[in-house]
Amino acid sequence: MTVDSPPAPVQLDTPARPRRIPPAVLLIAPSIVFMALLLGWPVIQGVLQAFRSDEGFTLDFLTRMVEDPYFWPAVRNTLLLIVVMIPLQFAFAITMALLLRSNPRLNKVHFFVWAIPLALSDLAAGLVWLSIFNDRGYLNSVLTSLGLGSVPWLAYDNPTTLFLCVLVAEVWRSTSLVLVIVVSGLQGIPKDYDEAAQVFGATFWQRLRHVTLPLLKPSLQVALILRTILAFQTFAVAQALTGQNFPLVVGETYRWYTALQNPNVAAALALVILVASMLISVFYLRALRDKGQEGTR
Amino acid sequence: MADITISHLVKTYPGGTERATDDVSLDIADGDFTVLLGPSGCGKTTLLRMLAGLELPDSGSIAVGGKDVTYLPPNKRNMSMVFQSYAVFPHRKVRYNIGFGLSMAKKPKEEIDRKVAWAADLLQLGPYLDRLPAQLSGGQRQRVAVARAIVMDADVLLMDEPLSNLDALLRLNFRSELKKIVKDLKTTTVYVTHDQSEALSLGDRVAVMRKGQIAQLGDPLDVYDAPADRFVGGFIGSPPMNFIKAAVSGDGGALIVGDQRLRAPSLLQSYSSTDVLLGVRAENVAVDTQRSSGDVPGTVLVVEPMGSSILLTVEVEGQTIKVQAPPTFRTSPGSTIWLTFSPNSMRFYDSETAMALVAR
Question: What is the structure's pLDDT at B353?
Answer without folding.
Answer: 87
